[in-house]
From TrEMBL:
<comment type="similarity">
    <text>Belongs to the bacterial ring-hydroxylating dioxygenase alpha subunit family.</text>
</comment>
<feature type="domain" description="Rieske">
    <location>
        <begin position="40"/>
        <end position="138"/>
    </location>
</feature>
<dbReference type="InterPro" id="IPR043266">
    <property type="entry name" value="RHO_NdoB-like_C"/>
</dbReference>
<dbReference type="InterPro" id="IPR015879">
    <property type="entry name" value="Ring_hydroxy_dOase_asu_C_dom"/>
</dbReference>
<keyword id="KW-0058">Aromatic hydrocarbons catabolism</keyword>
<dbReference type="InterPro" id="IPR015881">
    <property type="entry name" value="ARHD_Rieske_2Fe_2S"/>
</dbReference>
<dbReference type="GO" id="GO:0051537">
    <property type="term" value="F:2 iron, 2 sulfur cluster binding"/>
</dbReference>
<dbReference type="Pfam" id="PF00848">
    <property type="entry name" value="Ring_hydroxyl_A"/>
</dbReference>
<keyword id="KW-0408">Iron</keyword>
<dbReference type="InterPro" id="IPR017941">
    <property type="entry name" value="Rieske_2Fe-2S"/>
</dbReference>
<dbReference type="InterPro" id="IPR001663">
    <property type="entry name" value="Rng_hydr_dOase-A"/>
</dbReference>
<keyword id="KW-0001">2Fe-2S</keyword>
<keyword id="KW-0411">Iron-sulfur</keyword>
<keyword id="KW-0223">Dioxygenase</keyword>
<keyword id="KW-0479">Metal-binding</keyword>
<dbReference type="Pfam" id="PF00355">
    <property type="entry name" value="Rieske"/>
</dbReference>
<keyword id="KW-0520">NAD</keyword>
Length: 450
């Protein structure tokens, strides 16, 4: 397949992005081959597979993978395709098993991927080395605070290097509300649904598109939107009073929006409800300040870990995968997170809040989906595609803090999106890891309209 020149389509110098990115079939195939085979991808949460033999079928790019816990407790990410004739070896979404037995001719694989059973092996395959025909395993896997990440590229940098300084922001979604490290679990199962939009639109939105908040005005007014300033049983965001909002773009392509309190502030009501719930949120807030000190001033909103894993760091805390499902289709998987040891009453409150807010039936998420769906459809038109999209917001307003911390802006900016697409273009052009990690410049961007 001839590679398309994506630098022509991504003109970050002038803030112009071609609509081809959201509909073009060749670009989609190029993404699968050059981006989803190399970048670190979120695969699932270890709480989905707590016991030996547990498995959860996930995806990397458009391919099915099995997140598996072997009988010794080790975690593996295995390509869900038989080495014999390619049948899917695991047809279920999740479960517990001793083996993955292929339905076609019954080759069977242990939960660590080893080929252990071949019918009539001695007669039909004398001398075949079964060890060479195990399920294909990812080149690298990382378990970060219970979240499992993987890449097919053995030369990719270690996950923590890839995450870089985005770590302290992602931590806010993964750590307990009281500041303890880790301790979250997947809550409410995994919500899965398909939307008619290109996967990059939601990924980009979560890089820090705070500018779209008017889309959520109606849900805001009833107290379950992003600002949630009203409602008798809803969330309040008093702890954000006077906070400095920041938008940061990191060298590997991640983008986040967080906020920093002006000082360590006394507790301000987060949720109004029963005494148990109110006491829980107060306790967590004060305990977090005690544990983290000045660092507790950092409060999360959203972020995207390049390319297609996003998080909500405030309630509802969740991790979302925007799986490519075709140029104009995205399979969304959202995993809500909750502190494993939170009281049942608190979990119940959050369960209601989460389902009202996010997921296929969540009112805030529905607002977003409508935007992304129409934007994708709007990129399909022959005439429309002649005109690039405007990504010029707040050009030059931020500053490069340092090579590691990335680019920081204290006003709403599309710089995070510009850099997201610049990095996307670098992957599609097949550039090396020094470029992909921002250690060296790639090719200067040319004008999309040339
Ligand atoms: Fe799996 Fe033949 S395809 S055993
Ligand atoms: Fe939104």
């Amino acid at each position: 397949m001839a590679r398309l020149d994506t630098d022509r389509l991504v003109d970050t110098r002038n803030g112009l992005i071609s609509r081809e990115l959201f509909v073009n079939k060749d670009l989609y195939q190029q993404e699968l081959e050059t981006l989803f085979t190399r970048a670190w991808l979120f695969v699932g949460h270890e709480s989905l597979i707590p016991n030996p033999g547990d498995y959860f079928v996930s995806r990397m790019g458009a391919e099915s993978v099995i997140l598996s816990r072997d009988k010794a407790g080790g975690i593996h990410v295995l390509l869900n395709t038989c080495r014999h004739r390619g049948m899917k070896v695991c047809l279920y979404d999740e479960g517990n098993t001793t083996h993955f037995t292929c339905p076609y001719h019954h080759w069977s694989y242990a939960t660590d991927g080893q080929l252990v059973g071949v019918p009539q092996y001695d007669t039909l395959y004398p001398g075949m080395d079964r060890a060479k025909w195990s399920l294909i395993e990812v080149a690298q896997m990382a378990n970060y605070k219970g979240t499992i990440w993987a890449t097919w590229d053995k030369d990719a940098p270690p996950f923590l290097d890839y995450l870089g300084a985005a770590k302290e922001h992602l931590d806010l979604a993964l750590d307990c509300r009281d500041g303890r490290e880790g301790g979250s679990e997947a809550f409410l199962g995994v919500h899965k649904w398909i939307i008619p939009c290109n996967w990059k639109l939601p990924a980009e939105n979560f890089c820090g598109d705070t500018y779209h908040n008017p889309s959520h005005r109606s849900v805001d007014m009833i107290g379950i939107g992003p600002s949630a300033r009203s409602g008798t049983k809803g969330r309040r965001d008093d702890e954000l009073k006077g906070a400095q909002h920041v938008w940061v773009s990191f060298p590997a392509g991640h983008g986040i929006h967080s906020a920093i309190q002006p000082a360590m502030m006394p507790y301000a009501e987060a949720f109004r409800d029963t005494p148990v719930i109110e006491e829980y949120f107060r306790h967590c807030y004060e305990e977090r300040q005690r544990r983290l000190g000045e660092k507790s001033r950092l409060l999360p909103f959203v972020g995207t870990i390049f390319p297609n894993s996003s998080y909500h760091g405030r309630q509802p805390r969740s991790i979302c995968m925007w799986h490519p499902h075709g140029p104009e289709s995205t399979e969304v998987w959202r995993i809500f997170l909750v502190d494993k040891d939170a009281p049942a009453e608190v979990k119940d409150l959050l369960r209601h809040f989460y389902m009202r807010y996010s997921g296929p039936a969540g009112m805030t998420e529905q607002d977003d989906m409508e935007n992304w769906n129409y934007a994708t459809a709007g990129a399909r038109g022959v005439i429309a595609r002649r005109y690039p999209l405007n990504y010029q917001q707040s050009m030059g307003a931020g500053k490069d803090d340092d090579p590691v911390a990335g680019h920081v802006s204290v006003q709403i900016t599309e710089e995070n999106s510009r850099r997201f697409y610049a990095r996307w273009s670098d992957y599609l052009a097949g550039r090396d890891w020094d470029v992909l990690m921002g250690r060296r410049d790639g090719t200067p961007r040319r004008a999309a309209a040339e």
